[in-house]
C-alpha cells in the first residue's frame, strides 16, 4: 500500500541513534542489482518510491526529472541491442585475464527485470526560472542524479532492487523511446525483486575491484 508523505506543516522529526543505524544499513545494502525475479513490481510501491524520489533537491526547484516506463517489447529490444553492441565493444578494450573476467561479469538485468525505467533530464523546463544554473547548466542533470539516488534508496527500503545500466548509446535509447528532443538520458534503470541479497558490491564479489580503503578524500586548501 502506498504510504502518505510527511506533511510540511508537521514539526521536524527526531532522528535518534536507532534510526541513524538503520539509515546506515539502507545505504550499505542499496547495491546495484543485476539479477531479478520475474514477478511484477507492485504499482502502489512504485508510486510511493517515485513520490519519495521527487523530494530530492533540484537546482532552483526545477524538478527536471522525467521518468519513462519502458513496457513495449520492441522498445526494450532496441535498448537491449544497444547494450549488447556497447558491451561487446567495451569487452574488446580489455585483454588477457582482465578481458576474460569482464566477459564473465553480469552487467545488466535487461532480460530479467520486470520494470524498466528510463530517466531523462528536461533541458527545456521552465520550472525554476533558470535560478542557479546560468553558470552551471549541468546542475539540471545533477538534480536528476540526486532524484535517481533517492528513488534507489526508497526502492531498497521497499524490498526492491535497482540496476543502473550505463553501457548504452544515449542517442539510440532516446530515439527508441521517442521522447522530446530537449530530454537528455541520464539513467536507464532495471527494477524488480532481487534474486539474491548481498551487502558487498557485485564487482567486489566477483573480483573486478575492491572498495577503495578511503572512499572519501577530504582535502583542505
TrEMBL record:
The keyword Glycosyltransferase is annotated on this UniProt entry: no
Entry's EC annotation:
1.13.11.79
User: Which superkingdom is the protein from?
Assistant: Bacteria
Which key words tag this protein in UniProt?
Oxidoreductase
| InterPro entries given in the database record | BluB, Nitroreductase, Nitroreductase-like, Nitroreductase/BluB
Does Oxidoreductase appear among the keywords?
A: yes
Which is one GO molecular function term here?
5,6-dimethylbenzimidazole synthase activity
Q: Where is the Nitroreductase domain?
A: 28-193
PANTHER family with a match to the protein in the record: NAD(P)H NITROREDUCTASE RV3131-RELATED, NADPH NITROREDUCTASE
Q: What is this protein called?
A: 5,6-dimethylbenzimidazole synthase
Q: Which organism is it from?
A: Methylorubrum rhodesianum
Per the record, the gene is bluB
Amino acid at each position: 500500500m502506498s504510504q502518505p508523505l510527511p506533511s510540511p506543516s508537521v514539526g521536524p522529526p527526531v532522528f535518534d541513534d536507532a534510526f541513524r543505524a538503520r539509515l546506515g544499513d539502507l545505504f550499505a545494502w542499496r547495491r546495484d542489482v543485476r539479477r531479478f525475479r520475474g514477478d511484477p513490481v507492485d504499482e502502489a510501491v512504485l508510486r510511493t518510491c517515485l513520490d519519495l524520489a521527487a523530494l530530492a533537491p533540484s537546482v532552483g526547484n526545477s524538478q527536471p526529472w522525467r521518468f519513462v516506463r519502458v513496457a513495449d517489447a520492441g522498445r526494450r529490444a532496441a535498448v537491449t541491442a544497444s547494450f549488447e553492441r556497447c558491451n561487446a565493444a567495451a569487452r574488446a578494450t580489455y585483454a588477457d585475464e582482465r578481458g576474460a573476467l569482464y566477459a564473465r561479469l553480469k552487467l545488466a538485468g535487461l532480460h530479467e527485470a520486470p520494470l524498466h525505467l528510463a530517466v531523462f533530464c528536461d533541458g527545456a523546463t521552465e520550472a525554476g526560472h533558470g535560478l542557479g544554473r546560468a553558470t552551471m547548466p549541468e546542475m539540471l542533470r545533477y538534480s536528476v542524479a540526486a532524484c535517481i539516488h533517492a528513488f534507489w534508496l526508497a526502492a531498497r527500503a521497499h524490498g526492491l532492487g535497482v540496476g543502473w545500466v550505463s553501457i548504452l548509446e544515449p542517442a539510440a535509447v532516446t530515439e527508441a523511446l521517442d521522447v522530446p528532443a530537449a530530454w537528455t538520458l541520464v539513467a536507464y534503470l532495471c527494477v524488480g525483486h532481487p534474486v539474491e541479497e548481498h551487502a558487498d558490491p557485485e564487482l567486489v564479489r566477483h573480483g573486478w575491484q575492491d572498495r577503495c580503503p578511503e572512499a572519501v578524500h577530504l582535502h583542505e586548501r
